[in-house]
């Protein structure tokens, strides 16, 4: 039997899940979150501590701390949770490409990050099966939002990360490095090919039109009602819709802090002199150096 406990992080509209086989049994944690204040730089564990309390109250053993991808809208609590609960951290093997990309963006040295994925305990590939207690997780590659996006299938429950939203919310954006609308279309079709009763557990809900929070739907409902991709929308139409919409979207407010932490498996960058840790923000220079943008 699959037991699922959802935890909603209101500041980032993220839903993180604890999935377990039985009370006193074994568990996995999917898409964990640290609290982070951008103005102050303060990092907290209040949200993650609620998950730790749930694990301890139900006498669960954490076997895996899983990421569906390297998130751009919240900081992962994977490293913190492992320090408190044990278990192995895991992400797609595609994380190495993400690490290589952002090493250049943030000018991260090899001494700081090798970009081999070694900051995670296990790198996962599509069709791989991992186990916890009496349950098994089938790993499915579902790239498009990012090139490292995964879906985790536990019996008839699919944890799809950012790939899909509730039907009235549509689908993930594809304008991050490695994102591709055509690839996302194919990945969603793969998810939609699962049994129609399969429950889809989503990583975000932005509550369109102010409706109440929802974070689970079914394959049948998504195929029929998703406003961006359904049985009536062609791949060409989806690509056009997605690309047009992506051009109108703002950069996630925690993009740079989140990526720097998440490509390190939830760890902070190394401290500099005085033991102070810094997160970098790349600056657009064209205002001060017009030659860098081709303007004169």
Task: Give a structural overview.
- By secondary structure, the protein is α/β, with parallel strands linked by helices.
- The protein has a single domain, classed as Metallo-beta-lactamase, Chain A (4-Layer Sandwich).
- The chain is built from 7 helices and 14 strands.
- A 6-stranded mixed beta sheet has the order 1-2-3-6-7-8, covered by helices on one side. Strands 9-10-11-12-13-14 form a 6-stranded mixed beta sheet.
- α2 (78-85) links the parallel β6 and β7.
- The mean pLDDT is 95.
Give a brief rundown of this model.
The protein is an alpha/beta fold. The protein has helices at 46-57, 78-85, 95-106, 181-192, 219-225, 235-248, 255-262, and strands at residues 3-9, 14-20, 26-30, 35-36, 43-44, 61-66, 88-92, 122-124, 129-132, 135-141, 150-154, 157-159, 199-201, 216-218. It has a single domain (3-263), classed as Ribonuclease Z/Hydroxyacylglutathione hydrolase-like (Metallo-beta-lactamase, Chain A, 4-Layer Sandwich).
Following the backbone from N to C, one meets helices and strands in this order, namely EEEEEHEHEHEEEEEHEEHHH
Any guess at the CATH architecture? 4-Layer Sandwich
Ends distance: 66 Å
Shape: globular
Radius of gyration equals 19 Å
Largest sheet geometry: 6 strands, mixed
Question: Can you tag this structure with a few keywords?
Answer:
7 helices; RibonucZ/Hydroxyglut_hydro; six-stranded mixed sheet; single chain; 296 residues; Metallo-beta-lactamase, Chain A; globular; alpha/beta
